[in-house]
Specification:
Elements lengths: L1 E5 L2 H17 L8 E4 L6 H14 L7 E4 L1 E3 L10 H8 L11 E2 L8 H15 L4 E4 L21 E4 L2 H7 L12 E4 L2 H4 L4 E6 L5 H9 L17 E6 L9 H9 L8
Parallel strand pairs: 1-10, 2-3, 2-6, 3-5, 6-9, 9-10
Antiparallel strand pairs: 4-8, 7-8
GO molecular function: glucosamine-6-phosphate deaminase activity
Pfam families: Glucosamine_iso
InterPro entries: Glc/Gal-6P_isomerase, Glucosamine6P_isomerase, Glucosamine6P_isomerase_CS, NagB/RpiA_transferase-like
């Protein structure tokens, strides 16, 4: 795992955007990559930087396919807080990526268990994901894989913890409006991506980041599954790095990277 510690959240957003842009431009137009897209506050600054590069520098996403990490169960199609709506509002509507090329679990399906299996099959058919963007919850979750999730789990229906529902209540009119269930890619599903790219900022995420990066590999901290992956990058600001014991080592290795060494 490579840990990149930067001064500010804005710096993190630029580095995450660098990684995504490199993946998008790596191949010919006829072989554009599949990206794994996360919602939530963590990747927003990176998405804004990608939009800026598209508008001002001509970075094209034509032909790129996007797959969402998760979706609430029970929200009607088009609900403003469904993650398909959120990713469109925060990123894809401003890029040259077709709506038909952005996929997510069907949270409005009459049988969420069937919807989860169908989404897992779609990911298998369209993979591998070149870069999977990830945030991290204060309890160490990635996607909606709450503590206790199997490290080899696949896409499935999960019940949200009350902490996660409280964290997400700010997006809804009333706390009781936050759905109790989601369809989420599993930790095993996420791990099939070629490059896992986790970003976090702020002191509130420091304990979870430390557990994921330096703690044991354990289902009690789902994000620790990144330790298992052959190509995982964690991009964090100084506040999120505050509880890392080896922070100085990570800063040293970043300073002495080879000029063209990828993240």
């Amino acid at each position: 795992m490579e840990v990149v510690i930067l001064p500010t959240a804005e710096d993190c957003g630029r580095v995450v955007a660098d990684v995504i842009a490199a993946a998008v431009t790596a191949g010919p137009d006829g072989n554009r990559p599949t990206l794994g897209l996360a919602t939530g506050s963590s990747p927003v600054l990176a998405y804004r930087e990608l939009i800026r590069r598209h508008r001002e520098e001509g970075l094209s996403f034509a032909g790129v396919r996007g797959f969402l990490l998760d979706e609430y169960v029970g929200l009607p199609a088009g609900h403003p807080e469904s993650y398909r709506s959120v990713i469109r509002r925060e990123l894809t509507a401003t890029l040259d990526i077709a709506d038909s090329d952005v996929h997510g679990p069907d949270g409005a399906h009459p049988d969420p268990l069937v919807a989860a299996r169908e989404y897992e099959l779609r990911l298998l058919e369209n993979g591998p994901v070149a870069v999977q963007v990830l945030g991290i919850g204060a309890n160490g979750h990635i996607g909606f894989n709450e503590p206790g999730s199997s490290l080899t789990s696949v896409t499935r229906v999960k019940t949200l913890t009350e902490q996660t529902r409280r964290d997400n209540a700010r997006f809804f009119e009333r706390p009781e409006d936050v759905p109790r269930h989601v369809i989420t890619q599993g930790l095993g599903t996420i791990g099939r991506a070629q490059h896992l790219l986790l970003t976090a900022s702020g002191a509130r995420k420091a304990a979870a980041v430390a557990a994921a990066v330096e703690g044991p590999l354990t289902a009690s901290c789902p994000a620790s599954v990144l330790q298992w992956h052959p190509h995982a990058t964690v991009v964090i600001d100084e506040a999120a790095a505050a509880r890392l014991e080896r922070a100085d080592y990570y800063r040293y290795t970043l300073q002495h990277k080879l000029p063209h060494q990828p993240y």
